[in-house]
Design brief:
Blueprint lengths: L11 H5 L8 H12 L4 H11 L13 H8 L1 H7 L16 H4 L6 H13 L5 H18 L17 E5 L12 E2 L2 E5 H11 L5 H7 L14 H14 L8 E2 L1 H29 L3
Parallel strand pairs: 1-4
Antiparallel strand pairs: 1-3, 2-3
Length: 279
Amino acid sequence: MNRYLAPFAALVLVAASTPALAWSALGHRLVGELAERQLSPEAKAEVARLLAGEKEPTLAGVSTWADELRSSSPEAFKRTAPWHYVKLSEGTCRFERARECKDGDCVIGAIEAQRDILADAAQPLEARRDALKFLVHFVGDVHQPMHANHRDDKGGNDYQISLRTPLQPEEYARKHYADGVMGTNLHSIWDYYLLASRGLDFDAYADRLATPWPPKKTPIGAPAAWATESCGYVEAQKIYPKSHKLDHRYLDAKRPLAEQRVRQGAHRLATLLNESLAR
């Protein structure tokens, strides 16, 4: 297992336990890396200044920080957990802010609030640094269809799946993997298996997806639109399979959409940062 894929398997069962995680480390790192390649020189310099001192001072390097709060700062994670997703109206993809994002506690409200903090040069450096780290993660989250879902199953966490796959989990999770079959759920399929099953290392995968999406002059829209767009794919792309037993055929069929969402998220994140960090 290469140096990038090794930690991803460790997130699979964590993602299976809560709707507060989306895209594995691989997906989030790809969004961060592809976005950084699209930054203006001015934005790139400010990102470098804000992230100075981080263990890996890049957008990819901080892309999983919001999830890592679960272990590094449980109280902060408990407070921010609702910021990772939005549950849209049952049976529709309408966003009703008063009901679904009360007090800004959803991924849409979080993106809007953290963008405002980042764009305010009067804010303390630490606040803007954390806002940047949150934004990298949450823009990735909102582009994962299971994180802007309208079904009542905790973002696919309650939709159990038996997946035949050669991708083996880490040792602690092997009790869920036997004879080439992984007991998991639909959230984890979208979180991890769709991208990891491409079989590329990180650099090769980033290069494969590096073409900006969509063309730079296309307006990126607002976070609420990104969420309803994700939700729309749930039915339009038949994300929920009829069978609970899956294999590579489902992964191969749905991977292009997952990769499209990574590319779209990266482009929109880059545009948001270029606008927020312009002077």
